[in-house]
Input
Amino acid sequence: MDWLTIFGNTASSLIGPATLGYALAAIGLAVHFGFAGLLNMGIAAYMAIGAYGYAISILTFGLPWWVGVIIAMIASVVFSLILGIPTLRLRGDYLAIVTIAAAEIVRLLFLSTTFDEYTGSADGLSGYHNSFRESNPLPEGTYGFGPWEYTHNAWWVRIIGILLVALAVLIVWAIMRSPWGRVLRGIREDEDAVRALGKNVFSYKMQALILGGIFGSLGGIVYALPSSVNPGVYVTSLTFFVWTALLLGGAATIFGPVLGAIIYWVVQTLLSNILPALVTAGVLPFMSTSQAQTLRFILVGVALMLLVIFRPQGILGNKKELTFVK
Amino acid sequence: MSSTNRVRARRARWRTATLVAFVGAFMMLGTPAMADEVGEDEPFKISGNVKLDGEPLENIRLTVTGNGVDEEVETDAEGQWRVGVPERATYTVTLDEETLPEGIAVVDETGEDTTPNEKEVEIGPGGRVTMNFFIGEGERNVTSFADQLISRTITGINFGLMLGLAAVGISLVFGTTGLSNFAHAEMVTFGAVIALLLGVTMSIPMWAAIPLTIIVSAGFGWLLDAGLWKPLRTRGLGVVQLMIVSIGLSLALRYVFQYFIGGGTLQLPGAATAKFTLFGAVQLSWIDIASMGVSIAVIIGFAVWLLFSKIGKATRAVSDNASLAAASGIDVDRVVRIVWIVAAAMAGLSGILYAYYRPGIKWDMGAQILLLVFAAVTLGGLGTAFGALIGAIIVGVMVEISGLWIPSDLKYVGALGILILVLLFRPQGILGRKERIG
Output
């Protein structure tokens, strides 16, 4: 077994675009669920809107990449409004079902051949990198050391991703200790009490949905930044994986989503490298390599169950600030 | 596949979507993708040319169906089309004459074929086959709108009854325990997988395998309640926590199925039974008729049980108000246990019927209809068994009929859109009560 490659790949995933994308999406979900108590099961739709908004702005309208980012953010705000106005008054589990259905609608619309000209239907979108790479200030070449040795373009993706994650963490930290954040937590704990204090609960929830949605769309952009937009990514499983990452780190914490996303991807990468290697080495004789790959996702499901049952506050969370309302 | 010759992979593509997602994610990390994990590009090809007097015709729509495949394709500027299929089998290619120019139709060369625009093809030894249609001036073979409507309504009722079997269970579980059970989808898949194990791997004849499957499914429901849900209730987990546990269970079970049956589509015996014309344009196979008959019989039996038996009455009492039911001497835990067993048995049956309806068994087949089942349950009113049934039939018929107007790859969008509209205007559903809205 090639332990060096296995650990190299695992260490590399610490700052991989997938990790950074998940971290941003999980931060968005933390704003929705951790702080506002909104059971949003449609984070995959926000990521899809981010990725498609970015790619379509560049490919169809020929805009520079940073305009694409802004358009993707605006699109996510519009989606929040469309989704939020009818659904924010629903109770927890109803909201979960509606948001998951809305996410499926979004995905099917992107997948449909009806809008093939813009979305590429089942083939997805690719080849939108020129504008982003032209803005790269790094001179051509490879940088870094050990497992973190990447080309200038790969670094540029990671730098933007890390900056966005840092910015998101900073915004969430600042906003959640403000009076606005306290009202939001109040809504999570007892909506009626906050309403009795004269606050417009619906408006606060909507603002939280919009803010978290923007982070979700940025997560989708970072996830799709280095390669392509593939409609097969934005399935409901993606939502569940981001949820697993969020609950792992701690839903109502500032750094929890980032920590959760890192652990999620490090463990996933490690298993995806180590399990097939063990099979090839004959350690797991009852398994084929593809079964070994499937095993990882069985473990994600089991991990999600165990987390919610035994440590619902996550690694960094405080049991007193449990976000699950009975 | 060239970009001009665009193949519209709809359902088949959706099924592999999750896998593609994982592989895509890992390619980004620079880890080599496992080739055997993707369906790759389908290994077998059906292709052809559509020409009129030597001139290529563009944008002619063809569909390739059979053996679990349902794909649509349009010809490119050269009049060519190509579809990839997963298995070496017989497929039906249909040319949509509506898309041909005015006054042009598929010509019948033999003079005996009444539907010359529909042809059966078998994949040849080279892994590919060519299918060309003779096109010229002539009478079109088009099904009239009314016939299509009737035909789709009947298919929709069949689909709706099958959804109903699953929806009733989800609704009962919600009514008695407050859990929105996402893992219900996997209870549906479980039935299909067990039928496959008994009927194919162990070669038990289907008439015995199906009842056995239902018994095993019921046992699975007992196991889930005894091993997982009962301890969690005792632990005092909230409904939202329980819901997320069910999501975790759903993910885990889904991949357990994939672990054992792989990522491909497998068939139950008799899935390829020929269809015959019942009347007009309505074409059904014996399997379809038996499926509808079984669904109706089971649903009537269930209704009688729920309305008149002691346990059925107790179930409704627990659904109405669990504490009051407990206070009046009903053993709530026992009722919940029975509800899980009944729900799992009906989900298992629904899985078998769905395996014949699609046709084919796939590891994530239940997850594909989960949201339709939720739509049905919400439409009827969460927690009401009969509401769920009505909702399921409406959703099933609507999904099929909406295909007349909207592109078929968007037909689920209509059903999910209805789900959202219902929650907007009548959140309690058709038969539900208002207390469910927050």
In short: The mean pLDDT of chain A is 92. Strands of chain A lie at 142-143, 150-151. DSSP finds 14 helices and two strands in chain A. Residues 152-176 of chain A form the longest helix (25 residues).
